[in-house]
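Work Package 3 (structural annotation) set out to generate three-dimensional models for the target panel prioritized at the project kickoff. During this period the team completed the workflow that converts sequence records into discrete structure tokens, so that structures can be stored uniformly alongside our sequence database. As a representative example, we reproduce one entry of 432 residues exactly as it appears in the project archive.
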Amino acid sequence: MKLDDMILISVDDHIVEPPDMFKNHLTAEWKDKAPKIINVNGMDVWEFNGQKLPNIGLNAVVGRIPEEYGVEPTSYAQMRKGCYDVNARVDDMNANGVLAQICFPSFPGFVGQLWASCKDKEQARVMLQAYNDWHIDTWCASHPGRFIPLALPAFWDPKAMADEVRRVAKKGCTTVNFSENPEKLGQPSLHSPHWDPFWKACEDEGMVICIHIGSGGGMNFPSMDSPVDVMIVTTPISIANLAADLLFSDVLRKFPRIKFALSEGGIGWIPYFVERADYVYKQHHKWTHQNFGKKLPSEVFRERFINCFIDDKAGVEMRHKVGVETITWECDYPHSDTTWPRAPEILWESMKDVPEKEVHAMTWENAVREFRYKFAPNLPKEKCTVGELRKLAKNVDLTLMKGKGGQAAAGTGEIVTARHIVNQLANAFVKQ
């Protein structure tokens, strides 16, 4: 097998929503109440219900020189067009040899926190549905076979969540977001029966529940003086807390067919995690009253969790302890962790000595099965490889952008800390 023979489906990328996204998905009575882009001191800002959200594309720095990475951009002019334009996105996917993507939201929050903040819950429902309709019917449908639709939940009401799951399922959507820690967002914990209508709807519809790192409280730093590198290193691994919370909860027992995707969580930590989970269960279950029946926690984990990685050589080496059938790949376009436009080359360093059957399982077959992906009729499988897709991108400009931002550090060469990041975000509000 050669690098160009791989087929790549990414189960974690992101959209920076375009200014006109609500144009065709709201009735006249609601258009004036929808979020709008305004320009404030050179910044493009979403304005909604009196709130201004100045960072439209947090860390959407793909295509910049690395020296100018940061928590920007704050305007569309600072971004590569593929961040917010679906046609340019497909061009960038072709240049990267990527067949299809799951795209997470930006300004509404991972679980639609912006809609949940509406005092008028009818407005919340209308805006949520307009967002999901835009995502499914405009962004994804504009290029059949290139995207896997992902819905936002009606996070403020489990019954409304269930209704929305069933509504978008009829549109062909196969996955929906949830939070890694709903308590931090002012809702009951995932252990509460409060969420049962949502879990039941997801089980009935075969809807994969994606839980993205940072979806329960944002960025976490040990201290304000911690280098930003600390947060970048530890955030993916921190999803182990959610994995344990779900694994030892009643959710998997009450709803035995639902599956969770640990989005952008990596896989190298999993062999120890499942080993530890089995030890804890055997050692402690008589007094903690856990009951996995005839199975071990590690077996349940393999059955119910979908694992996702960007670049994880250790995880690939230990793939049999992770479960090859559970592993999927992701690109994280357009964030600073992305491997675009060299994802195939970087991934191949981990995959070149892996049997071809297992490469295909991890790079596309597992994603096809779990997310019920359908190849486009006009894009036969033999035309979906890295090599063939890159032939479609000969005119895509891959020149790195300069002078677009990157003001995270206080001075040239200074180590960027949590304090710098917080101050930069705060300054964006002050400038308004």
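The longest helix spans residues 121-140.
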